[in-house]
Each structure stands twice: as structure tokens, then as C-alpha cells.
Task: structure prediction
Amino acid sequence: MSIRENTEQWESEYLSPYAALSRNSKGRDVKEAPCDIRPVYQRDRDRILHCKSFRRLKHKTQVFLTPKGDHYRTRLTHTLEVSQNARTIAKALRLNEDLVEAIALGHDLGHTPFGHAGERALDKLCSNGFAHYKQSVRVVEKLEKGGRGLNLTVEVRDGILNHRTEGTPFTLEGKIVRLSDKIAYINHDIDDAIRGGILAEEDIPLEFREILGFTTRERLNTLIHDIVLNSLNQPDIQMSDKVEKAMRDLRSFMFESVYTNPKAKGEESKAQNLLEELFSYYMAHPEAMSEEFTMMLEEGEDAKEIIVCDYISGMTDQYAIGKFEEFYVPKAWNV
Result:
């Protein structure tokens, strides 16, 4: 019996009856020989961790555009915090930790430069629309590995697609990531907003803090414990009504106080204008894109505007700014 088979046997004996077992995966679009060491979700996690899109997350905006300071979250640190929250919950519930980690690490691979401001810009520019959760699936199915994609399992792709608020993942592991994403961004965005002088802890309504906690640490502890206690040995991932309502109301408070705050979001119109100009440039000069994207254009499977959106959405903040300066900002003339 191989190491992988031993691990799969351990899963069947130890994990919850509601867990997504590796040996029961719906599989990949392109069949592959199994690894002798790693079950399928471990392989998916490793593929995501080593792909180029994952590395670029470290230079993509979470909430604050190009912040001055080393401790503000990026899209990468957000992803890692989601993964840690999800793994803690999955382990406590005896669900598949490899699956939640793979989904969590891949859930934001399709995010644009400049966060949701960039997403809104591309959504307006592309006639088919643009949504980061759909783009994350497109990244792993087609854009990575020179057009071959990562060939991930159905369960991981479903979790990535359905991590948004309106999503309904078909595995409990996917549902864990969906909640962990909200837990992570609500709490780390509070932390960053306090660091940026936009918010003080005392500005958070007392009714929320009395239920969830008076610090980021206390709130994380409350939310994670509530999910574990209410989901243990249950066929669903759920929270108590009281804590869920407090989290939902706190999220609404953050939208009003931070996500639409001019101090935090005042530069967003500039970022959107920048991406609009890049979109216009690449639509007129598609040959300026990298080779793998010009090849996609020649193959003709997708419309030019979709491929241009693919290219721009994969950029980091600084790369997008650099390309804008290259195309539109006059250079000094050296005599």
C-alpha cells in the first residue's frame, strides 16, 4: 500500500462522516495517474501554492491602495489568514484540512490590481462582465501553465467559485472557506483601518463588541468557536443566530465606515481610470501583451476584450502603474 493509500485509509477511519474524502473526489477534467505520496487535494494545494498567480498576490491591494507601511494586508496575507482560519475550523470538525487549504489558497487568484476598485473597472469595460471569483476559476482552469491550467479537482474549483457571500459550495469544506473569508477580512480590515487612523476600536458599536469581543483576537476567537460548536457532528456549517447577526451587522458597519470612506478609498477613481486607459491601449495594441496572451488571441477561442481583461487582471498594482507610465507619461529627453 502506497503512502497516499495509507493517508486515504486514515481519512476514511478518522474524518467525520460529513467530510469530503480524497478517494471520493469527483476528479479532474483531464485524468491523471495518482501520486504515490499525496492525495488529490494535497496535490491541488501544492499546485496553487507554486503557481505564478499565487505569487503575484503579494503585490495586489486588499483594501488600502499602495499603503505606506509594512503591516497593512495585501491580497496574499489575506489569503493566508483565510487559510489559517479555515484549517482551524476544519481540524476541529474532523473535516478535510487539505481541501479547505486548497480552496482558501486559490479563492482570490483572479483578483485584479487595486482590489475591488479594479474589479469594478473591468466589470464595466468587459461586455461579459468581470467577477473575481469567476476569474479565479478561469485562472486555474485555463490561464496558468501557459494555457493548460492547473487541472484541479471539481471540489476545489467549486469551493473557489462559491466563496462569495451568495455562493453555495457543495462540500462542507467549501462552506468553511466561504465563512472564513468573511471572518478574515472583517477583522483584518478593522485592524488596518485602526492602523490607518480611519477607525478607532471605540467607534465599533458597543452592541457588536459585547457579542463578538473588544479586540481582533477576541472577535476571531468568538467567531471560530461559534462555528465549531454549532457545526460539530452536523451535516452543515453554521453559526448561532446571535453571533451570525452580529457578524453581518459588523460587516455592514465596515462598508459604511471603511469600505466607502473617502480617506481609505479616495484614490480608487484614479486606479479605475488607470485600468480603463490600459484596457483601451491593449485593445488597440494587443501585440503589447505578453506572448502567451497574444497566442491566445491567435487561437481565437475567446474575444479580444476577454483576453485583455485576463492580462490586466493578472497584473500587480505596481506593474499596472509601470505600464501606464510607459504608455502615457512622457519620458525625460536625454540630449
Remarks:
- The chain has two domains: 38-265, 268-328.
- The CA atoms of residues 287 and 294 lie 6 Å apart.
- The mean pLDDT is 94.
